[in-house]
Design goal:
This protein is of the alpha/beta class. Helices cover 59% and strands 9% of the residues. The longest helix has 28 residues.
Amino acid sequence: MSEVLSQHMFEQLQKDNLSVLYDKCYSESVLQCLAEKLINDSANKYMLLFLEYMTNYQFDENLDWNVGSIVQHFDVSTIVSGLKNISERKRAYLYESKGLVWAFGEKNTKDQTIVDFLYEVLNYAKSSESWWMSAFALEKLTGKSSINNLKRSLKGRKVCGLEDSLKHIEDKRNIISILLNATNIDIKEKIFPSLKKYFLESNEKNILKNTMWLIGHLRLFDNEIIQHIKRIIETSTDYEIIYTAYTVASKDPRGSFEDNFIAGLKSKDPLIRKMSLRGLSKINARRNISIIEDLLDEENNQQVISEATDTLSRIKNEQIRSERKILSRCRVNENGLIADDTDKWYADPSVYNIFSEAEDIESVCFDLVLRKIKKMGLKIVNPVDLATGTGKTFRHILKRIPYEGTLYGVDFSADMLAYLERIINRQKLYVNDIKLEQNSIKDFVLGKPSSFIISSFGFPSRIFNKETCLDELKSVYRNLSDDGIFVTIGWDETFKDELNEMWYRYIPDSIVANSFNEWCDKRSAKIHSPRNCCLTWYKTNIKVPLMFANLEESVNVMGHLFGRDAANAVMKEHRTFWWMKMGVTIDTKESLKKAIEKMESYK
């Protein structure tokens, strides 16, 4: 049947008649058979025919997908030659073709002409479908995360809020808008209920595809959703819907679709066989190795052979399986806790403590402060660690600074203080004169003045809020003795280090920038003085490592801080080490008074 149909289509295309590609979306097997005939006749001629026809904007959805499925079988040089022979004006029309974009991704070539074209689509496409497809094609060709690319392309632009995005979920750009707004609470209370209702009740194609994709990406599988996806896989005749269903099914962590993948290996359609193999590779189905090997022995389709061998490697290889286990254990949220206003990273003591202990592991910054104190001959009375967190600096003071009176650890988070309390009890640190106080920086009151107040990555609590900065500065001033000093440790505020580069790459923020350096400069420009509080730099450009003990620790912490894409990148790079550039401020009571006066003059 495939041979007869493809022969008829071939004869029509020889007459430059593309109407045969309008009828419907044909199966992969029919279009592959047709592609082989076109290649043997003259692939370059047909490639130009397709592109010229599409640049006249005379294609519909069926034609678009059929051409894409044909072109994926053409030689890379044929595709590149076709792109180079299309004028720049006409080339813009091709940005709207999701079929071509998909085909270029399937070719899995790193040819720069194709990569450049896909970036053009990502930047300029009006169609949200081709815009979307270009990011996934680029991920295959460059290894750069598709979702991260899509998020970055929307960062700083006017995008819909969560409510409007959920109401217009048929638009692919609104999928990314939803992800940009995907805090843990919103996923639970708004996103999941809406997605489930749309998915189970809607028959509109784009809504069905988009809700199903989001369900898979956010891992929102319940029994009703699983059963509905199974019905789609088993009964749908729409190629795009089936493709999406297989993609989503592979993301279910429980492996609920294993039987569907096994059944798909017997499909006559090579695309279904390929998607089934991809699904099996994601769930590490070791007991199915022999079934995959049997398929490989009989398989003739080159793309399926490639997918089968890739799947076998992923299932058999112990290192790959171990890495998958690490990622599965690190259940991180979409955008990272840094970007999640409802679940700030410093509110998770277990994550914060690992990060804190890994940062400046040799205590370079604290040692600078310690030597300065000794040179000053400063008598330490009632020292305070502001925003103490899990107590790294608090414990430095206990172990390394002789003091009189009481050491205070102040933090707004009860969870952080409870974590520190457990450390204190376990290490019997309670034999010292210490006190933990749950309070904000602007409201803490000692009763007795302190000659040494320090804050590491905690002051000010809202660096871009001038009112908060002033209130907190006044609070420190009130509690500081006349001969005391106030110390802060944190970024050097140029932000040009490897950890901030992670922020630039993975955290959705409002800074629009074409490069990391531009992003750093714009972020730095928002801070008008040290810590935005008119403090006094003691040392800047201090280079210290962030070094985790092992890969699992690194993936877990960096994934929690910066989100899922970051976790995947850390795993891929096997990275456990980043450089940070830090700065230390030191102020006396007199310099704090001047800082407060200066800030009040800005009102």
